[in-house]
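The protein record reproduced below.
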Amino acid sequence: ERLVAVDQLLNNAKDRKWELVKQCISLQPDIVNEKPPYRRFYLAHHLAFVGELDIFKDLSTICHFKLDLVADNKTISQVAREHNHIAFAEYIESLTVESDETTTSNTHEASAAHSSGAHSTGTHHYSPAFYDDPCISFIPANINVAN
């Protein structure tokens, strides 16, 4: 059912049916950063491909786009630049810089909290592109595959 929702969202984006895209996201905002393995782009990449900066800004008010997603080995801003949507690319890059500054600030706060005795869970979060990387193996290195 979730796969169907994500697929429908991306079909609507591909067909530039922005009101339907907004409805889908309003119902399930967490699907905005997902794509089935057989799809080329995430929603943000579709928006970059066609240069719909105003739609991106509008949708950003109801959901959170992960700006580090890679589709077809390209970032969102790379897709925008490739299709000559420079304003879109620059906007994404400015958000990425803001995000990096916030992360750096949070890292310093986390370091201070850790040194003051606060405990972290040690949980690692990876973007979906991490799992798509063909160089990453989930098979233990010491497994004997000859048997």
User: Anything to note?
Assistant: Residues 2-94+126-132 form a domain with the Serine Threonine Protein Phosphatase 5, Tetratricopeptide repeat fold (CATH 1.25.40.20). The two ends are 39 Å apart (CA to CA). The helical segments are 2-14, 18-27, 43-50, 53-60, 76-82, 86-115, 128-132. Residues 67 and 111 are 24 Å apart (CA to CA).
